[in-house]
Structure formats: C-alpha cells, structure tokens
Specification:
The complex is a heterotrimer. Chain B is an alpha/beta fold. Chain B has 16 helices and 12 strands. Among the domains of chain B are: 227 residues, Aspartate Aminotransferase, domain 2 (3-Layer(aba) Sandwich), CATH 3.40.640; 130 residues, Aspartate Aminotransferase, domain 1, CATH 3.90.1150.10. Chain B starts with a helix and ends in an 8-residue tail after the last helix. Chain C is globular. The chains are: A alpha/beta, B alpha/beta, C alpha+beta.
Chain lengths: 456, 522, 129
C-alpha cells in the first residue's frame, strides 16, 4: 500500500477470497508466462514522502534560470506573457482538471461547452469558419495541415517558406517523409519570403504551401500575395500564425489562407520549458470533414435543452481507423480552455490594445537597439512583437552569456551574428532601456576585446 | 441578471427534472442547483465596453503607420466583453456541468483514470519549472535537463529498454514516432518494407498511425483465448512486414500467453515489435516489454504515470527503444556529460528529425517524475498489483451478484488491470443495450465504463477500476450494475430513456452531425 | 422505415445494394437492411458526375454518427447523376431507401453484369441464413 492505494490487509484477504485465489501472486502466475516475469526489483530508488519529493523538485527548479530570475527577451515560438490569475484558478478546478475526454456528453457539458466557445474564439481570430478543439502544439499543427492537404489532393510536393519556425520545418519534413512527400524550401529575401522563388516553386504537383505570419525573423509577410500565388495550383494554402498578433494583423481568412494553424502558448499558457500548451487548427468550410482532432457541436437533448456533443466523429481514428484524417486522440483540452479564458479576459477591446502595445514597444526596442554601436537591423520589414538584429561580433553566444550575467537575457542567437529579440507586455520601456545598456556594453566589450575572458 | 431571470428569459424554470426513481443516488456532481441552467456561452454574456483586462501603460512614444494599412486588421475579432466577476462566474458555473475523477468513480477502460496527486500541480507550478523558457541555454536549464534525464532512466527501467525520447505529445504521437523509427531502421538497411501488422483488438490510433507513416495495415486475428492467433500471424509474417504493433495486456485485459513465440515470429522475418503502452499500468515492476522482446514502447504518461486528463489532454507519449533503433531517435536528445552537467544534443545524423517544437511537454514530465519519486520501485509495483487486484475483484463481485448471465466476461477467467464484458445476452433478454446500461449508470453517480470498444466484442463494456479506488467503491459500483439489470428485467424503458438526473439528457448526435453548428453565431 | 421491405422489381447485390434498370441507365441505392444496420444516416459523400465506377468496388461512403460504410457498386458504369437532395437531408436514405433515398444513376458499361445480381427472393434468403 502506497499513499495512493487503499488496500488494507483485511481488504486484501476478503478480495482474494471473493476472486477465489490464494494470493495476489497467483493472479499473475496464472496469466503471465514465467519467461517474461520480472523477478528482480526495478532498479529505481525507493519511494519518498510528499515533503521530500517537493524538496527534490524545488531543488531542481532552483537550478534553472527562469523568466522569474532574469529579464528575458527570449521568444522564437514561446513568449513570457503575463498569465492572469483567473486562468490558474479555473484550470485547477477539479471539474476541468480531472475528467477524461467527453465521451459521455450528458455529464461533460462543461468541457464540451468550453470547446465550443474555444472554437468560436479561434474562428473569430483567424477569420475562418471552422476550428477544431485543439491539437498538440504549433509545429505538429503545421505537419497536421500537411496531412490534410495530402488526403485532399494527393499531390507530391510541399512548398515551405524558410520563414517558418525551424521546428515547424523539421516537423513537417519528418511527417512528410512518412507519407512520401517532398518538401521544397523557399528562401527569404530582405527578411520575408522571396516572392519570385515562391511563385516559381508552386506548380500542378504542389499539395500545399506553408508560410509563417509573422515569420521566424519577426517580419510581417504579405500574406495575401503569398496566398494569391498558389491560387492557380491545387495547393492548400497553410499559414502558421502567431495568434497574439491577430489584434492588429489582418486575419488569415481575409488573406486567402485555407488553413491557419499555430502555437497557442501566447494565449494564457505558461512557458513550461516548451509545453504543454496547445495548437490551434482552423480552416475554411470546405475542409470541415478533413479536420484532424475533436470538434464540439451544438445540439439539443430529448427535452429540447441546448447541449453540446463531440461531432463529425467519423473523421477520427476510433471510427475510420486506417482511413482517419489524423491519428490524434488525447490532445490539449485543458490548455485550450485556458486559451478561451485568456481571450475572454482580454476581451474585444483588450485584444486590440495589447496588440498595439506590442507593436509600439517592439518598434521602440528595435530602434533603440539598432542605434547601438555594432548593432543593426537584420531586415527593415514591419514587425509586431519580435525582430532580428545583426551583431557585429565574432561570438553572439558570448554576448548573450555576458548579458545573462547581468540578469538580462537579450534573446536567441541566430546564425551569422543574428539575434532574435521578443517583447511581451511584461517588458516595459524601462526594461528595454536596461537591455540596451547591457547589450550595448556587451557588444562593445567584445568588439574591443575586453569581454573575451569573461565570456569564456 | 439573476439566475431566476436568466432562466425565465429562456423559458426554462431550471430544475424541472426530478429523478424518476428517488432512491437512486444523485451523485456528487448532481447536487448543484446550477447544473440545470439553460446553457449560455460566454459570447452571449456581458455588454459592449465591459472588460476584465487593464492594459499596461503605453510608456513609449506612439508612432503611426508601423503596420502598413494593407496588412492591418479592419474590424476587431468579436471576442466576449465581460468583467472579471462575470468571467469567473461563467466558467465556474460551466465547470459544474462536468463530472470529474475527483468527484467520483471513473472506470473508463483503457484510460487508466487513477488519482492525480495535488503535489504534482504544486511542483509543476514552481516558477523554476513553469516560467522556464524552452530556448533557455542548457547551462541555465540544468535542473530541467536533469529531471528529463532522470525520468528517461526511470521509464527505460520500467520498460526494460535503454534509450528514451520524451518528445511525443501523446500516445498516438509516440506511435507515429515509433513507426517512423521502424521505417528509418529498415531504410538504413536498404529495405522498404510496406506492411505493419495490428491485431483486430487494437486501438484505432494504431491503424491511423500506420497509414500516416506510409505503411499498409494488415490485420491479425484474435484466437479463442483473446490473444493473437499465432497461426494467422505466422501466415502473414513475411519479409514485407516492417513491424507488429501490439498492446499487452491487450484491450481485452488479456496478457498474451504466447508473447515469446509471437516475438520470435516477427523477429525471424526481420520485423520490429512495437508495444502500445496504453495498458502498461498492469505490469509495472511485474513484466517488462523489453524482456518480452519488444523493440519500441510508448508510454502514456497521462495514464500509467498519472496526469490530470484535463477533459482530453494534455498528456505525453514518450517512447523507449532498443539499441538498434537508438540512432534514429528524434532531436534533440538529453545527454549527461562526464562532469555531471547536462546538455541537449542536436548532432544526430540518422535522426528521423522532429515530431514537434522544443523538448516535449515538460510540465507533464515534472508531474510524472514527481509520481515516480513518490512511489519508487516498490510503489510502482504496488500500483500495478493493486490495479490488477481491483479489476479481478470487481469482476468477481459482479459474478457474485449474479450478473454473469446478462453481461458475461468476453474472454478468459481472470484478467489483468481491465476486463471486457459482453452486453449481448442483456440486449437479447432484457432489451437494453450497453449504451442504455451506461446511461443509467450516470443516474447512479458514476462515469460508465468504455462502451462499444473493443470492436471485436458485441455490445462491449470495458472496465478499468485502477488501483486508487477503495474496496467500498468497487462494491457499491457492482451493486449499482446489478440493480440496473434487475430494474431492466422489470421495466427496460427506464434504462432505455436514462439518464434523468444529469444537466442534459440524451442528446441528438445525429442532428449535430447532419447540420453542424460548431461555433457560436455572432 | 420501420419495417423491412425489399421490392420485387429491383436487382440486389450481396453487399446490400440495389439497382433499378431503365434502358442503359441504372439507379443505385442501399437496401433496408443496410440502412438499418448503419442507423440514422448523417452524411452521404457522393462521387463526381462523370466518374467511372466498377462492379463490386466501393464508389461512395455513407456515415452514421459512429460508423462509416463503403457503398459498393452493383454494376459498372459512368455516373450520370447524383442525388443532390441527400446533402441537406441524408436521413432520406433511412426514410425512403428505394425512392427518394436513391444515391446515384449510372450509364451501364456492361449491361450483362445484371445477370450476376440477385432477385428479391434470393437476396432476402441471404439475410435470413
């Protein structure tokens, strides 16, 4: 008996008698061949008390430098947004935290209604008619969109902008190898997808095209032009979108995008060293029956009451099996709930205000940093919440390390002296000024050679 | 906007359905007067101008025209406009329309609904874990990498396989990785095999995965004892078989007695053996997939290693593999350096690539690692032993209560951690279907077992009580099952029209599918 | 349709499809048995007009809430018409399987294939065996 099991000696005796066996061991002996029984103890430590486990996990946490410990400008797919207290409170309610997937709708109306509300919010954000109830996360959502395209048109090639997040590109390649589709990468020009190379890469055998909005370097793409370039091909137009930018940027549904997917972490989710968050997946009406994952729908009960159910389930693996639109089963329902609570918390006006704040602070940060000696913009494209710089130094990692020593994480090192800097509403003008001071000093130190020994 | 007005507004008095049978226990979630509200969504609440969010000050000079007009959004997304009190009340009320594991028994077969210790939520919320950025440089994420390394070791030990990747986000994601690894392994040997074998008892995710990974599904029959039909397997195992995917114990709760022979048949034709870990909760510390001959194992951390299921996720589906598949594991891999520090290794030339962003669902890892630390070697074994004991006890109690002539065990005599009953005699003799029995259980305050799976069994009822339930709970549940059968013998229409006490009653699923309404019209 | 019925003027395929032949055009549908086994039909995914279908092979899908079934062609030919009314009212397949619940019309490519189909009494015998 551990603290999570309940069988007393008396229980055990009574239960064995009811079962009709003499010992617990007999139950296993009668079912598992001796050749595959484990007769040694697992080579793991013994169990520990709750307070000891807490202390161990706390000590491990203390070995990490989190966004609590430093002023961070890291982004590149996940961002240190403020998570409002209502999210912690609601996501920790037993009623949301501990049920399974809503297979019995009569006693799962809470979860189903939240899915329905979430779908409505994502549909509003993206300007697309159809949203599912969430997928795992961003990059695998891109790959899931690829599978949708493959099942839709059966063509042999994906065309992907190099502006996609590198993890999305890698994930797409991994999945596409499985179903034998070639991925052709289109390079960036001046920070955005090269329009000529893009148009040239799309042909009659293109199953889908993929771009990111904003792209990995923070640049806002001309989404309408990229979509239009695919309109005379069979290709499904897929955009990976940062949802927090949709307060200010045109929704993908109004730019000719067929499928919009993305990482939902910006919408009220913790960083959690990369997960769990949620991925969103929205599409035009035409793809309703090709969607992966769960979808909640509205209906009525036998007494005419409004209710919600999982619907269009014939798409899914438990019914269509090898012909399913996806193999996805468990997904990210709790995180998606956090997402819709977050969007409701921001509200119609707040969502736009937050986007405007990010645009202005990001502009201020970009101009302030680009004015430093030895620092320049990597591109001049419009940006919303993230931008790329080039540092005229030999070793960007050493510059980052020097900044971190002073409690500032300036962002992510990119190849060839690049630095990717991200803003959230938690980074104020004062923080940006501090970053400029620390980064400027670190760059200057390295350019004059004084910083080398520190960095090493 | 009182509760009364809101109900009246929709012509609905709120609490009009009394249970038909007052002696039926209403169950823990059926006490709130709120639960029978007419459902209104957050989009139907609030008023223009209301808000819960106060935007931080615009502390930088405002510059116009930063985003070109053509790229800007023209009209705002029609998100809700509610205050924080409205927001909280809405979602708290909505939450009360859910049944949950913390409130009651949840014997949902193949889902392993075991208790979720609250310690796990506390440690996962520590800022050192919860606010750690996934792109933080490894020297500043040593605690996280150490945790992942320790978890990999523990999972590998439970499976009896040496190499672990934590990356996949759920069981089906782990399956996809496993089949892609198999493909990479065969390709590295210059072979392009086309077939993957799965038994007809398999979870639907298995065949769906096989197709996504570019293979053809070949079904293997099940024998009279509920295990793999070895003759059928032998007939289908040839040099085009890449892999056999197996759940053991399988979805019938049967541990395959021929597992060693099955492994040999597949290995002899050069295929790999894939272990679907959905049912690992039956065998932790008792029998190891690696020792059975499996090359690849996926774990459902949200099943065997207790995650709150969150109404359908998040979870995590790590996999463990044998030496011959290790070179193909996804990037990055956690490495322990000679000096005791940890690093992320991206330099894996034969890797299949990536299945998702970053390092996986770390917040899930924290919880499962805490669980393993709490239980230790003996505790994990105790969990599996007790899970099997509870399943066999529930099965025996149902027999004692004379239910066997209506809902007999489909295969075998004993079971592992779950068992399958067939409701076929009940349907024939009492005129109620498994679905009706399940719906009537709702009125007794229980979440029903899994129904209509596995497909092999007519009118299937798949029950998995888990190790964290008391004998008293199992007794009470068995008595409710028996009572429903007795009631149905008297009047089948009671079960046929159940439930009566839930927030809504049977829903028109056909109507929902015919004319889908999947968002709130605004 | 509450009660089983199998009209005498139709030809039947063992996969529970019927055909009504008029000149070189055949109207195809599913039998009472098929719609009863499936339950309430919620979606019919028709093939495109102009497509060729082959006897004994699937040419469309019908879905209930929790099942998908292939519809197997009893005869070969080119699709000349699909029942567009089913997109809004798929339950017509349940309510009037031999009338307004028809699925497609084809121009037969090999009228002699009809000789391989069953008559009403022969088909009904397969259901009771």
């Amino acid at each position: 008996m551990s603290r999570y099991t309940t069988t007393t000696e008396a229980d055990l005796a009574a239960m064995l008698e009811t079962i009709g066996v003499s010992s617990l061991e007999e139950i296993f002996d009668r079912q598992i061949p001796e050749g595959v029984r484990l007769r040694e103890r697992l080579d793991l430590p013994g169990g520990r008390s709750e307070q000891d486990v807490y202390a161990h996990l706390r000590d491990l946490a203390a070995k990490n430098t989190s966004a609590e410990d430093e002023l961070t400008f890291l982004g590149a797919g996940m961002y240190d947004h403020y998570v409002p207290a209502v999210i912690d409170m609601l996501m920790s309610r037993s009623e949301f935290l501990t049920p399974y997937t809503p297979y019995q709708p009569e006693i799962s109306q809470g979860g189903l209604q939240c899915m329905f509300e979430y779908q409505t919010a994502i549909s509003e954000l993206t300007g697309l008619a159809v949203s599912n109830a969430s997928v795992y996360e961003g990059p695998s959502a891109v790959a899931a969109a690829g599978y949708l395209a493959k099942l839709t048109n059966g063509k042999g090639k994906f065309v992907a902008s190099a502006g996609l997040h590198p993890h999305s590109l890698e994930t797409l390649r991994t999945y596409a190898h499985g179903y034998d589709i070639e991925v052709v990468e289109v390079p960036l020009q001046d920070g955005v997808t090269d329009p000529d190379a893009w148009a040239a890469a799309i042909d009659d055998d293109t199953s889908a095209v993929f771009f990111a909005q904003p792209n990995f370097l923070g640049a806002v793409e001309d989404a309408s032009a990229l979509s239009a370039a695919a309109k005379n091909s069979p290709a499904v137009v897929v955009a990976q979108v940062d949802p927090i930018t949709l307060g200010v940027l045109a929704p993908p549904g109004e730019c000719g995008v067929d499928v919009a997917v993305g990482e939902g972490q910006s919408l009220g989710q913790r960083l959690d060293f990369g997960g769990p968050s949620f991925g969103f997946f929205a599409a035009t009406e035409a793809y309703l029956r090709r969607m992966p994952g769960r979808i909640a729908g509205e209906t009525t009960d036998v007494d005419g009451r409004r209710g919600f159910v999982l619907t269009l389930q014939t798409r899914e693996q438990h019914i269509r099996r090898e012909k399913a639109t996806s193999n996805i089963c468990t997904s990210q329902a709790l995180n998606a709930l956090g997402g819709v609570v977050y969007l409701s918390w921001l509200g119609k006006e707040g969502f736009v205000e937050l986007g405007e704040l990010l645009v202005q602070r990001t502009h201020y940060a970009r101009e302030t940093l680009a004015a430093l000696d030895g620092v320049e913009k990597l591109h001049d494209q419009p940006v919303v919440r993230e931008f790329a710089l080039r540092l005229e130094v030999r070793d960007v990692d050493a510059v980052i390390a020097r900044c971190q020593e002073q409690g500032v994480n300036p962002g992510l090192a990119l190849p060839d002296g690049g630095l990717l800097v991200a803003l959230t509403e938690q980074r104020t003008k004062a923080h940006i000024d501090k970053l400029a001071e620390v980064l400027g000093a670190a760059v200057s130190e390295q350019r004059t050679g004084t910083g080398q020994e520190v960095a090493a | 906007m009182s509760l009364l007005n809101e109900n009246r507004q929709h012509g609905d008095p709120g609490i009009e359905h009394e249970p038909l049978h007052q002696d039926v226990p209403a169950g823990p979630t059926h006490e709130s007067p709120l639960q029978r509200d007419h459902a209104t969504t957050i989009f139907e609440k609030g008023a223009p101008g209301r808000r819960a969010f106060q935007c931080p000050d615009m502390d930088v000079p405002v510059v116009e025209g930063l985003i070109p007009e053509g790229f800007r959004r023209k009209s705002p997304a029609r998100l809700p406009e509610v205050s924080e009190p409205e927001l909280v009340r809405h979602y708290v009320r909505v939450s009360k329309r859910n049944y949950d594991l913390d409130s009651g028994f949840y014997p949902l077969g193949s889902c392993t609904m075991k208790h979720n210790p609250r310690l796990h939520e506390r440690v996962a919320a520590l800022p050192g874990h919860a606010r750690l950025h996934p792109m933080q440089r490894p020297e500043h994420a040593q605690g996280a990498l150490e945790l992942m390394h320790n978890l990999e070791h523990a999972l590998g030990e439970v499976a009896g396989l040496p190499h672990v990747s934590l990356q996949p986000s759920a069981g089906s994601h782990g399956e996809l990785l496993g089949v892609l690894l198999t493909r990479a392994y065969h390709e590295s040997r210059g072979e392009r095999r086309v077939k993957v074998l799965t038994p007809d008892t398999a979870h639907g995710t298995n065949p769906a995965t096989v197709t996504m990974a570019g293979f053809e599904v070949v079904r293997v029959a099940t024998n009279d004892q509920g295990g793999v039909d070895v003759d059928d397997l032998r007939a289908k195992a040839d040099d085009q078989v890449a892999c056999l995917m197996l759940t053991n114990p399988n979805t019938l709760g049967i541990f395959d007695p021929n597992i060693e022979e099955i492994a040999k048949i597949v290995h002899d034709v050069g295929g790999t053996l894939y272990y679907d870990g959905a049912n690992l909760n039956a065998v932790m510390g008792i029998s190891r997939p690696g020792d059975m001959g499996f090359d690849i194992v996926h774990y459902n951390l949200h099943k065997s290693f207790t995650q709150p299921h969150g109404g359908g996720g998040p979870g995590a589906g790590p996999i463990a593999v044998s030496d011959r598949l290790a070179p193909f594991l996804p990037k990055p891999v956690v490495r322990r350096n000679d000096d005791g520090t940890y690093d992320l290794d991206h330099d894996l030339p034969q890797s299949v690539g990536r299945l998702r962003g970053f390092q996986g669902n770390y917040g899930v890892f924290v919880r499962s690692y805490a669980y393993i630390c709490s239980l230790g070697a003996e505790g994990l074994k105790d969990a599996s032993e007790t899970a099997v004991l509870n399943a066999n006890y529930l099965l025996a109690r149902l027999r004692e209560l004379d239910t066997e002539n209506r809902i007999p065990l489909a295969f075998g005599e004993l079971c592992m951690h779950e068992f399958v009953l067939s409701g076929a005699p009940m349907k024939k003799e009492l005129g109620i279907r498994t679905l009706d029995l399940a719906k009537r259980l709702l009125d007794h305050g229980y979440h029903p077992p899994t129904v209509y799976f596995p497909l092999l069994v007519d009118e299937a009822l798949l029950m998995e009580p888990t190790e964290t339930e008391t004998k008293e709970t199992l007794d009470a549940f068995a008595e409710s099952m028996a009572a429903i059968l007795i009631e149905a013998a008297d009047d089948p229409s009671i079960a046929q029209n159940a439930p009566y006490t839930t927030p809504v009653r049977r829903l028109d699923e056909a109507g929902a599918a015919k004319r889908p309404v999947i968002r709130q019209p605004l | 349709m509450a009660d089983a019925s199998y009209p005498e003027d139709l030809l039947y395929h063992p996969e529970h499809d019927w055909a009504r032949i008029d000149g070189d055009v055949a109207t195809l549908g599913v039998t009472w048995y098929a719609q009863d086994a499936l339950g309430e039909v919620v979606f019919f995914d028709p093939p495109e007009v102009g497509k060729n279908i082959t006897k004994d092979e699937p040419y469309a899908e019908v879905e209930s809430v929790k099942a998908v079934s292939d519809v197997v062609a009893p005869l070969s030919g080119e699709i000349v018409e699909v029942n567009t009314g089913l997109s809004d009212n798929p339950e017509t397949i349940n309510e009037d399987a031999y009338g307004s619940g028809w699925l497609v019309k084809i121009r037969m490519s090999d009228p002699s294939e009809r000789d391989g189909l069953m008559g009403q009494s022969e088909y009904v015998a397969t259901l009771t065996s």
